[in-house]
Amino acid sequence: MINWTPLEPAIYPSKPFDKYGCWSGSVTILPGNKPVILYTGVTDPKPTPGTQVQNYAIPANYSDPYLREWVKPDDNPLVPPTHGENISAFRDPTTAWFKDGYWRMVVGSKRKQIGVVHLYRSKDFKHWTKAKQPLHSKSDTGMWECPDFYPVSTHAPHGLETSVMGENVKHVLKVSLDVTRYEYYTIGTYFPKIDKYVPDKDSIDGWAGLRYDYGNFYASKTFFDNGKSRRILWGWTNESDTTEDDVAKGWAGIQAIPRSVWLAHGGKQLVQWPIEELETLRGKKVHLSNVKLDIGQHVEIKGITAAQADVDVTFSFKSLEKAEAYDLKWDKIDAQALCSNKGSTVVGGVGPFGLLTLASKKLEEYTPVFFRIFKTKDNYKVLMCSDATSSSLSEGIYKPSFAGFVNVELANKELSLRSLIDHSVVESFGAGGRTCITSRVYPTLAVFSDAHLFVFNNGTESVTVESLDAWSMKTPVMN
After folding, report:
1. pLDDT for res 139
2. Phi, then psi, of 182 in degrees rounded to 5
3. 79: how many CB neighbours lie within 10 A of its CB?
4. pLDDT for 278-306, tens place per residue?
5. In sequence order, which residues have a C-beta less than 8 Å from that of residue 435 and are 6 or more positions away?
6. Preceding peptide of 47 cis, ω within 30°
7. Are 93 and 76 in contact (CB under 8 A)?
8. Which stretches of 70-141 are assigned E, i.e. beta strand?
9. Helix segments in 86-241, DSSP class H
10. Residue 432: exposed, middle, or buried by beta-carbon count in 10 A (0-12, 13-18, 19+)?
11. Helix (H) or strand (E) run with residue 249 in it
12. For residue 366, which of 75, 149, 307, 356 is within the disulfide window of CB 3.0 to 4.6 Å?
C-alpha cells in the first residue's frame, strides 16, 4: 500500500446507467473470494448534481491478480431511487455485511436537511429491497456522503471483518458532510434484528462530533485487511492552491497515507496510526534526547531531508501550573477558531510547543504543528494545531489554521507527536493517534533542500524534547 503501479481506470462512464458519471462506492468480497464493486452512476445531469442510481461491476477475469478489467452488466441499476429517495442526493454505497441470510448495505442521502443512510437488503446481491426505516439519520446535518459502517473490537486493537457482530463489538458510523466538507463519526450499537444503529449517549452525533482528521481530509473509506487482521483507513486530501496551479501541474488531489484504525481504550474514540509498511521508506535517521527548550527557543533538526521526512517526538514538561485558564466562551467556537487566535507565535503558559515543518531558513515560511494546554475548572484541555497561515508567501491560496482537542491524560506530563512531511502535505498524529490533522501547504522558499525542520517552544513553561527520531524518507514507486 506504499508502492503502486498505475493501471487503466477500472470503471468509467460508458452505459445509460452511468452515462454522466461513475461516482464513489465500495467493494464487497462475496463467497468464493469474488469481489464486486457497488458504485453510484449518474443517469441524467438534472436535477443538479444529477440523477443517481446504484450499480455493480464484476471482474472480467478473476485470475488476473490486478483485476484490471471490470464488466458492468446490463441488468444495472441494482438500486434506482424509486422508493421515495432524493434522486439527486443518493450516493456512495458501502461495503455490504451479511447476517441471517441477507446482505445489507447503506447509501448516503438527505431529506431536506436531515442526513440519512438508507438501508437495503438482498439474499442474492442482485435484488435489493429498501428497509422501511433508515439505518440512522440526524437532523440539521445535511447531505451524508461516503458513509462507512463497520465493527470494532472493544478488547483488542486488531480489525474486524465487516460482518462481525456480537459480544465485545461496537460499531462505527462515519459520514462525510457535503455542507461543511469535513467528516464526523459516532461509536454505538448495531441492532441487527431491527437493522438500527444507535450512537452511544456520550458520542456526539452532529457537526460537533469526533473526526478522523481535523484538517484537509474527506471522502474517506475503510476496508478490512484479512492478511494482517487490521482495518485500514484511506482518505482524500484535496488541493488548497489555485485552479490555475492545478491545471499547470496536470493533477489535483492526493490520497493520504493509509492508516490503521481501532477503538481506543475506554471505547470513547478511535485511534489512527500510519501503516507499518510506511517504515520501509525510512532512510537516514537522526536522534535527539533531553533537549531543553525555554521560551522563544527553536532548535533545528539537521541531517535529514526536511521536505520529505518522518518525525516522531515526545515532549515533557515539569509542571502544569502555568497552563492558561480556559475561557468558557471558547466553547461557543470550534478548535480551529481558537487556534487562529492562539497561534504558534502567541506566548502561552504550557505551550505552544511542537514542530516547525517545511520552514525556510529565516522562517519567512513555516507550518507549525503544536500543542497548547489550558486549565479548566477541574482538569486540562489540550489543543493541537496545524497552522498553514505562515506556510507560504504565495497569495490567493487557502491557508487555514486546522485544530482539534486531544483527549489525553497528562499525569506523566508528556505529549507525543508524529508528523509525516512530504513537500506539500503534513500529516500529524497527536498523542499516539488520538487526534490527527492533515494540512496541504505550498511553500515557495522552503522547498527541496531549502526546507528546514525545527522543534520550538513559545510557552513560559520550559519544555524538554525527551526523545526525537527523524528519518529522511525515500520516494515510493508510483509510476
Report:
1. 98
2. -135, 175
3. 26
4. 999 999 999 999 999 999 999 999 999 99
5. 214, 384, 404, 405, 406, 407, 429
6. yes
7. no
8. 70-71, 90-91, 97-99, 102-111, 114-122, 129-130, 136-138
9. none
10. middle
11. helix 243-249
12. 356
* Preceding omega of 77 cis (within 30 degrees of 0): yes
The pLDDT, as a whole number, for residue 292 is 98
DSSP 331: G
Q: What is the mean pLDDT of residues 230-237?
A: 98
Q: Is 84 exposed, middle or buried (0-12, 13-18, 19+ CB in 10 A)?
A: exposed
Alpha helices in 80-222 (DSSP H): none
Distance between CA atoms of residues 274 and 120, nearest Å? 33
Residue that the C-alpha cell 454505538 belongs to: 188
| SS3 category, 364 | coil
Output the pLDDT for position 479: 67
The answer, yes or no, to whether residue 332 has pLDDT greater than 90, is: no
280 in helix, strand or coil? helix
Assigned C-alpha cell, 218: 474527506
Separation of alpha carbons 136 and 198, rounded Å:
7
The answer to whether residues 367 and 390 touch, using CB atoms and an 8 Å cutoff, is yes
pLDDT band at 247; cut points 50, 70, 90: very high
CA dihedral sign, ordered 111, 116, 117, 120: negative
Q: Locate all alpha helices (DSSP H) within 283-386, ordered by sequence.
A: 335-341
Pull the grid cell for residue 391.
506556510
d(CA 40, CA 24): 6
* Cell numbers representing residue 65 in the block: 491478480
**Which cell goes with 219?**
471522502
HSE (side-chain half, CA atoms, 13 Å) at 454: 24
Count of other CB atoms within 10 angstroms of residue 399? 19
Residue 325, C-alpha cell as written in the block: 485558564
Task: Read off the pLDDT of each residue in 5-20 and give the average, rounded to a whole number.
Answer: 96
- 259: nearest Cα among 249, 271, 247: 271
| pLDDT one-digit tens code per residue, 170-196 | 999 999 999 999 999 999 999 999 999
Q: What is the pLDDT of residue 106?
A: 98
pLDDT tops 90 at residue 158: yes
* Type of residue numbered 206: G
Average pLDDT over residues 61-72: 97
120-131 pLDDT, tens per residue? 999 999 999 999
Judging by DSSP bridges, how do beta strands 136-138 and 129-130 pair with one another? unpaired
Q: Is the distance from CB of 422 to CB of 281 less than 8 angstroms?
A: no
